[in-house]
Design brief:
The complex is a heterodimer of chains A (218) and B (86). Chain A is α/β, with parallel strands linked by helices. In chain A, 21% of the residues lie in helices and 26% in strands. Chain A has one domain: Rossmann fold (3-Layer(aba) Sandwich), CATH 3.40.50. Chain A has a nine-stranded mixed β-sheet, sandwiched between helices. In chain A, strand 1, helix 1 and strand 2 form a beta-alpha-beta unit. The radius of gyration of chain A is 15 Å and the shape is globular. The two termini of chain A are 13 Å apart. Chain B has two helices and three strands, in the order βαβαβ. Chain B starts with a strand and ends with a strand. Chain B has a three-stranded antiparallel β-sheet with strand order 2-1-3, covered by helices on one side. The chains are: A alpha/beta (218), B alpha+beta (86).
Amino acid sequence: MSPRVGVVLFPGSNCEQDMIEAMGLVGAEPEILWHGDATTKGVDAVIVPGGFAHGDYLRPGAIARFSPIMGAVSEFAAAGGPVVGICNGFQVLTEAGLLPGALQKNAGLKFVCSMVELRVESTDSVLTRAAESGAVLRVPINHFEGNYTCDADTLAQLREQDRIVLRYVENPNGSVDDIAGICNEARNVVGLMPHPERATSELLGSIDGLPLLRSILG
Amino acid sequence: MIFSVQVEVRLRPGIADPQGSTIERAIPTLGVAGVSGVRVGKCIRFEIDAADEASARASVEDLCQRFLTNPVIEDSFIELAPGAAS
């Protein structure tokens, strides 16, 4: 049976259909999880997609954590279930306390929308376990607030515990230590700014997102 | 007892502020010289019903810490006065 993957839909999400399409490509059975339902419906993995959840009111991700679904996502994560937040989804996971740090406005004061190169720094996470260590992946980014920051202790801990799973080859947004994606201590919650679901076909200019999306399926 | 509250949310020193920088760059085009250090924050106003000023302040501080600011990148400055906002 195909693994069931739940894609969370908040008011203002806008990458959920791309994600549904992409997860279907790698053999998953994707379905939408409405933010107002306090259940993950028994899925095998949860993805929090990009967009502007709740209009990014107050701060990106700040209101999303009050949606009933987020309690269920936190429980799912605490039980070891794979949870991946992409772009706005990464912001939601940091605001919900599932990942440390915060995403501030890009250095250089620019919205960035381009193809970038990512280096796989650790294959020990639910997003990178099917990727090759050290591989360079071409995946697009599309954000204004993707400049990852955290306090010095947190950064030291992320490095020490090998929790920086993806780094930019060329830093596009000022993220500390070139961080593109991190995982939690249990390695089952990952957040990243780049969009692997937009690198799933030669027609889109890259298929390098596929190993990342396959990783989510275990 | 009702207290009116004003919370100013500021980006912490060192955190990039594109809005502030853009405003600062625009000001000289109006012929006004000498403006520097422009930072844009948020102002959140509300009223709170609490037993006394100390407990009102404690609630507001808790709200700031857990919701109104992201302490990784923002600081909050609280002003609190007895009575409803006019």
